[in-house]
Every structure is written in C-alpha cells, then in structure tokens.
Write a structure and sequence with these properties.
The chain is of the alpha+beta class and 255 residues long. It is 25% helix and 31% strand. It has a 5-stranded antiparallel β-sheet, with helices on one face. Strands 4-5-7-6 form a 4-stranded antiparallel β-sheet. The chain is elongated and about 70 Å long.
C-alpha cells in the first residue's frame, strides 16, 4: 500500500519529471542537493530511481579470486542514460583491457559484468585503481555549493518509521497539532505491520525552534511508533520552501 496525503490544491502543482535524467545530470543535481530534497526548485518531483538510489546506492563488486589472469567487476544500479558509458570510460582511462562483458537489465535496473585485465600483469591489483572503480558511480555531495542555499528555510520535517496500527497517522497528526504545529504535508507508506511517515510542519509560519518542544515530540512519537522495534527510525530536519510557500519531502522506505 502506498498512500500520499497533500494539502488542498497542492497535487495540481506537483509534477513528475517527464523523462529519466542522464547519469551526468543526476550526479550533478545530487551533488548540489546535500539535504536530499525530493523535488527541484521548480517543484518537479524527482525520478523514483533517484530516490531509490539514496536508499540502495550503486553496488560495485570486484572479484580477483575466480580467474588467475583477469579481474571480474560486477556493477548493479539504476539503469539511466549514460551509466554504461561512464563505467566503460572509467575502465578505459585506468588503462584496463575489457576482455569480455555481460550486460543485462530488468525493471529499470541493470547488472553488468566486466572481465578486465591490466597488461602485462593480468588481473588488476593496483589499490588506487580498485578504489577508483569502487567509486565509479559514487556521488560526492558538495556542501559548499547548493542550489538551495539562498532559499529561506521555512518548515520542519519529521521522518518516522516503526510499528503500524489502526489510526496511527491520525494520532501522530493530533500530537503535532496539540503542540502548536501546523501540518503542511504528510505522506504515509505501509508494508504488512510496518509504517513510514513523512510530515512537514511549521509553528506560526516558521520552523520549530524550541528544542524542548522538539525533544518532547521526539519522545512521544518514539513511544507511539513502537519503541525498541528493529525497524524504528526517526529524524527531523529543517528544509527550504520550494513551491509557492509550501514545503515537501519524500522518503523511500521498504522492509
């Protein structure tokens, strides 16, 4: 089950990206988004692949044991335009020979295998090159350059996950309202007996600044969502206003 609750009129403004961004554009956008917001400054919802990669980053495995004369590099990640070129260019710039490869994709994801060697030594043993390959699809976040750095911070977002029960969302919203919070947006995801919630709030039009109130809310919500469960998670953060004074965020969550 996947349910999203938005304020009146907000859904008309929410737009999804019309096409999957290239790997180069994806890496640049993520590097300039240290708070990992789920929408652009124009209010366009990022592709699901981008949100999914924040939970499941690209995976690179290097096998130097199977063969005596070559190294097997296995990469799996979201299949976006330009990713294969990025990987092949990296291997080429490192002076590696690709003896053969196996390319496969399904459901927007790919798993590629590259059988490479480094003449005349055979398998790849250079530690610096191995580290470079491991980071071939890695995104380096630049906290000093952000597309959002000049945008006024305007709301506090609570990200919660824990034990699901009937009426939990209503109870959470009631607790927030009881502490003087105005709920701007809320989203909830459920899977069997687990739940994840993302709630954006303000207090008198501004982010919550009272640390004592935040501490009280944290304790109360912790107890409500099943204190001590293995999948319990909560954090709060202050984020910019992006869409006509409204605030939004998105959370990818799965079991």
């Amino acid at each position: 089950m996947n349910t999203i609750l938005l304020p009146s009129g907000f859904g008309d403004a929410m737009r999804r990206s019309t096409s999957l961004a290239s790997f180069k554009d994806y890496r640049q956008a993520e590097a300039q988004n240290p708070q990992q917001l789920s929408v652009t400054l124009e209010g366009t919802l990022l592709e699901y692949e981008t949100l999914e990669l924040r939970i499941h980053p690209p995976n690179v495995q290097i096998d130097n044991e199977t063969y005596d004369d070559m190294t097997v590099i296995t990469i799996d990640s979201a299949n976006r335009p330009g990713t294969l070129i990025e990987v092949v260019q990296c291997l080429t710039e490192l002076g590696l020979s690709i003896r053969r490869s196996r390319i496969s994709s399904d459901g927007g994801w790919f798993v590629d295998e590259f059988f490479v060697s480094e003449s005349p030594k055979g398998k790849l043993l250079d530690a610096r090159k191995l580290v470079t390959i491991k980071k071939v699809l890695h995104v380096e976040v630049d906290n000093t350059v952000s597309a959002y750095k000049d945008v006024k911070e305007s709301c506090t977002v609570f990200e919660l996950s824990g034990q699901d029960r009937q009426g939990l969302l209503a109870a959470v919203l009631q607790v927030l309202a009881g502490h003087g919070c105005e709920v701007l947006t809320a989203a909830v995801w459920t899977f069997h007996n687990r739940v994840a919630l993302v709630v954006a709030v303000t207090e008198a039009g501004s982010p919550l600044a009272d640390q004592a109130k935040l501490s009280t809310l944290s304790t109360t919500l912790y107890e409500m969502l099943g204190a001590g469960t293995p999948w319990w998670h909560m954090r709060w953060l202050t984020v910019p206003s992006i869409m006509s004074g409204a605030c939004t965020t998105c959370c990818c969550w799965r079991s």
